[in-house]
Amino acid sequence: MYAIAAQVIKLISQVIADFANGEISQAASLFDTDITLEQYLDKSFYKTASLIAASCRSAAVFSDSPVEVKEAMYAYGKHLGLAFQVVDDILDFTQSTEQLGKPQVRGCMCPGGQPLRKECNCQPPRGGRRLVPLAVVPSVPCCRHLN
Question: What count of other Cβ atoms lies within 10 Å of the Cβ of residue 68?
C-alpha cells in the first residue's frame, strides 16, 4: 500500500511542477504570435493535460493495473487534457463571458489601446507584436487616424 501511495504522491508532485512550468511558459510567450504548435502543445500539457494524465494514471495505480495499462491511461489522460485545453482556448475567443462563465479575450487592440483596424499603421511596442489581448491593454488613443 505504501508503494502505491508513493507512486501517486510522486505523480501529484510532478503535476505541481508541470503547472508552474506551464504558467511561466504562457507568461513568457503572452504576445508571441510566432509560437510554434509544439510550443503551444507543451504549454497546454504543462497547464492542463499533465493533471488529467496523472489523474488517469493514478486510477490505474490504485487499481494495481499492469504497467501497460498505467501507460495507456496516462496517454489517454494526456490527449484528453490537450483536447480540453485547445477547446478552452478557442472558446476564449469565440464565446461571451456569460457563456464561458469566466472573463473572455474580447478582441485585439493596437499597442496604444484603440481597437485594431485594417488601416492602423501603429508600430509594435519595442520589437513586440502588433496584436495584443484587449483585456491587458489600457484604452488610450494612439492611432493618428483614430484620434
Answer: 9
Opening angle at CA 79, ends 73 and 80, nearest 5: 85
pTM for the model = 0.63
- Of the candidates 112, 115, 116, 107, the one whose C-alpha atom is nearest the C-alpha of residue 138 is 112
Report the distance separating Cα 79 and Cα 96, nearest Å. 26
**pLDDT, tens digit, for every residue of 36-89?**
899 889 989 998 999 999 999 999 999 999 999 999 999 999 999 999 999 988
Ranges in the chain annotated CATH 1.10.600.10: 2-100
CATH superfamily of 2-100: Farnesyl Diphosphate Synthase (1.10.600.10)
Task: Locate 3 and state its grid cell.
Answer: 508503494
Place of cell 490537450: 82
H or E stretch at 108 = strand 108-109
Asked if 85 and 48 touch (Cβ cutoff 8 Å), the reply is yes
